[in-house]
Write a structure and sequence with these properties.
Two copies of one chain form a homodimer. Chain A folds into two domains: 85 residues, Glutaredoxin (3-Layer(aba) Sandwich); 112 residues, Glutathione S-transferase Yfyf (Class Pi), Chain A, domain 2. In chain A, 50% of the residues lie in helices and 9% in strands. In chain A, helix 1 packs parallel to helix 3. Chain A is globular. Chains A and B meet through strand 4, helix 3, helix 4, helix 5 and helix 6 of A and strand 4, helix 3, helix 4, helix 5 and helix 6 of B.
């Protein structure tokens, strides 16, 4: 397996955590999202990922000489759930599974997409908003999402987002918190999120996946 | 089951299609997203959905007198997949399932969140962008997403997004196309999307779920 990613991409970070939790190895290939106008826009990468986004997981089937190109971090993680079910990221009961999914999707659909690189570039280049406005935009969507997530965590969390086992909700939350800290979003009002951040980052699977621990990190 | 939704909400529209495809009944309760400053912001609704978004699916368990409150359309649909698996919205093979999920998530994570009501309100109220700029923003993210989706559809579609069976990808795509048409986005460059739109809207499950066929529709 080859994982095309970037050290600072939240979506690639999610997949790194999931691979580590499941004990799966992948060769990491860096797609620099800024250098040369963004390597994700090069024709050879677009052939792997028509959305021109990271991550992409490429799986070679040596028997059939075919190649599976998987895009969208949550689709990749669901694929890993199917083929490597020894470590499960979703609870067995349908009701619990729905709660975990709703927390993961709150981050993946309602926070992350508003704050990723392409959107911030559009705000600067097309709408010519100031750096202050861009920062306010970023903080706004983080606070909106985290405030609602805290309500769900108050009801369902333990050591981690859902009780005391690591789930897909943690896999999505931790990269988003990392990003929020990078953009100096004050997180004092989110005691459950802070506890889960601390607990997850005690675990090797999360530590190994941290952006600064990637080969392509520039610090 | 009670589905809290709104006729024009794309996310509620997805859940309506999924319920219809699976032959499940739910009482539809309208949450007017604009009237009175938005009924989704009322305390009694926030108790059901701390994100103040539709849809929410509420399931009463009469035996235990407990209530399950499910949020996030894709988490709700996954829940329905677990409890009503007779009609499957995802293929059995892990590789095919990943492709369907990637198409569904392309719409749900990278198109829809950028164009929903809250974002358009923020653009007007906080960033004071003009109506032309707001329309350009809307069109930009639709075109970006649909252009990439057409590449995937060219490889995988038949009558529907993935071969000749209706899947989660269609459930996500059709409400997004409906919205694009509402905002006058020209769709001539997307032959596969147009074909799938026509084919899905031949099916009762999709027709019954159309916004204009809802009780709370104002036309």
């Amino acid at each position: 397996m080859k994982l095309y990613g970037y050290w600072r991409s939240s979506a690639a970070y999610r997949v790194r955590i999931a691979l580590n939790l499941k004990g799966l190895q992948a060769e990491h290939i860096s797609v620099h999202l800024v250098k040369d106008g963004g390597q994700q826009h090069k024709p050879e990468y677009i052939d792997l990922n028509p959305q021109e986004l990271v991550p992409t997981l490429v799986i070679k089937n040596t028997a059939s000489e075919s190649e599976l190109k998987l895009t969208q971090s949550l689709a990749i993680i669901d694929y890993l759930e199917q083929v490597a079910p020894d470590v499960n990221l979703l609870p067995k009961s349908a009701a619990s599974r729905a709660v975990v999914n709703s927390m993961a999707l709150l981050v993946a659909c309602d926070v992350h997409p508003l704050n990723n690189l392409g959107i911030l570039q559009y705000l600067s280049n097309e709408l010519e908003v100031s750096d202050e406005q861009k920062s306010a935009w970023y903080h706004h969507w983080i606070h909106k999402g985290f405030k609602a997530l805290e309500v769900l965590l108050e009801q369902h969390s333990g050591q981690y987002c859902f009780g005391d086992s690591v789930t897909l909700a943690d896999v999505c939350l931790i990269p988003q918190v990392y990003n929020a800290k990078r953009f100096n979003v004050p997180l004092d009002d989110y005691p459950n999120i802070n506890r889960i951040w601390d607990n997850c980052n005690q675990l090797d699977s999360f530590k190994m996946a941290l952006p600064e621990n990637q080969e392509d990190a520039v610090i």
